């Protein structure tokens, strides 16, 4: 059951304080969620999520709320507290949305997206990124990521679309055997009723978002959150302007990528490089 604004405890978290203040200011202004939606150009669903602390008030919503209510920099200041409290968990928030998404769109410029990774491929990445971690910690990380893949294997899976840079197919992770198995695992998912995988070949040259990672998560209510990651870290956005801009860039990448059939051929060609050598007969 969703939490209501009256159930929030402002002292519990900055996020709940923000939601409580939004509800208070809206009541003082005698403004409905429908009317506020028109004023700040955010959906009623999104505003309700912020007011009930179920969604993060990502920029530029705070500036728009301060203008709408004439509250100076009140909400911008509250956002600073929310950001300090939640910055390490922004991707965790996206993982929560991923489990409920009706449509997932991903772009991988350097590695296979987590929802498509084999256990061995994950393990190699985690070992490289956590060289001092114990085997127990590594296996727990692998198990956690594998559990995310249950989303695609459920009775009612989301529509899943992944775009991969050709470098993802060519870059060896974990050794030839691990790469061969990883690429083989992609092939059955290239073109199904619920999954699509496309590859952007090297011959394409430059293209939108080529320096980072993008995940777009669309919920059953048609609200979308995008998560973009680059060399400086990651950031999640669900304001309308940013979401529309990122989805448009994703559509342009689809146009740059090979169709599924040709993408499968490129994956198979890359597999040949990692094909295990046959042991000589004795």
Task: Show the helix and strand layout.
Blueprint: H1 14-28, H2 33-40, H3 44-51, H4 61-69, H5 74-86, H6 90-98, E1 103-108, H7 119-129, H8 135-148, E2 159-165, H9 166-170, H10 176-186, E3 195-200, E4 213-218, E5 224-230, E6 233-237, H11 240-256, H12 260-273
Parallel strand pairs: 1-2, 2-3
Antiparallel strand pairs: 1-4, 4-5, 5-6
Helix pairs in contact: 1-5, 4-5, 7-8, 10-12
Summarize this, please?
By secondary structure, the protein is of the alpha/beta class.
Q: How is this structure best described in words?
A:
The protein is of the alpha/beta class and 282 residues long. Strands 3-2-1-4-5-6 form a six-stranded mixed β-sheet, with helices on both faces. The radius of gyration is 22 Å and the shape is elongated. The model has no long low-confidence stretch (mean pLDDT 88).
- Tally of alpha and pi helices: 12
Helical percentage:
40-55%
Radius of gyration: 22 Å
Q: Average pLDDT value? A: 88
Q: Give the overall shape.
A: elongated
Number of domains: 2
> How is the main sheet built?
6 strands, mixed
Distance between the termini: 66 Å
Structural class, please?
Answer: alpha/beta
- Low-pLDDT ranges: none
Secondary structure: number of strands: 6
Order of strands, main sheet, comes to: 3-2-1-4-5-6
Q: What is the ordering of alpha helices and beta strands?
A: HHHHHHEHHEHHEEEEHH
């Amino acid at each position: 059951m969703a939490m209501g604004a009256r159930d929030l405890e402002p002292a519990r978290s900055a996020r709940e304080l923000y939601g409580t203040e939004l509800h208070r200011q809206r009541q003082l202004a005698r403004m409905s969620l429908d009317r506020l939606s028109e004023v700040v150009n955010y959906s009623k669903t999104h505003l309700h999520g912020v007011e009930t602390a179920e969604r993060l008030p990502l920029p530029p919503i705070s500036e728009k709320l301060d203008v709408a209510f004439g509250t100076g920099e009140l909400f911008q200041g509250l956002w600073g507290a929310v950001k300090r409290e939640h910055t390490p968990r922004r991707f965790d928030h996206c993982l929560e949305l991923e489990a409920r998404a009706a449509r997932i769109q991903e772009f991988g410029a350097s590695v296979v997206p987590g929802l498509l990774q084999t256990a061995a491929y994950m393990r190699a990445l985690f070992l490289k990124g956590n060289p001092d971690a114990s085997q127990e910690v590594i296996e727990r990380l692998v198990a956690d990521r594998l559990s995310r893949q249950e989303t695609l294997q459920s009775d009612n899976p989301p529509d899943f679309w992944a775009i991969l840079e050709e470098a993802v197919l060519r870059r060896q992770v974990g050794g030839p055997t691990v790469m061969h198995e990883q690429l083989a695992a992609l092939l059955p998912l290239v073109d199904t009723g619920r999954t699509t995988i496309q590859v952007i070949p090297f011959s394409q040259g430059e293209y939108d978002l080529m320096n980072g990672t993008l995940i777009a998560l669309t919920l059953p209510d048609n609200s979308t959150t995008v998560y973009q990651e680059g060399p400086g870290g990651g950031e999640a956005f669900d304001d309308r302007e940013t979401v529309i801009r990122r989805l448009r860039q994703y559509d342009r990448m689809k146009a740059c990528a090979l169709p599924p059939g040709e993408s499968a051929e490129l994956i198979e060609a890359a597999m040949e490089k990692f094909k295990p050598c046959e042991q000589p007969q004795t």
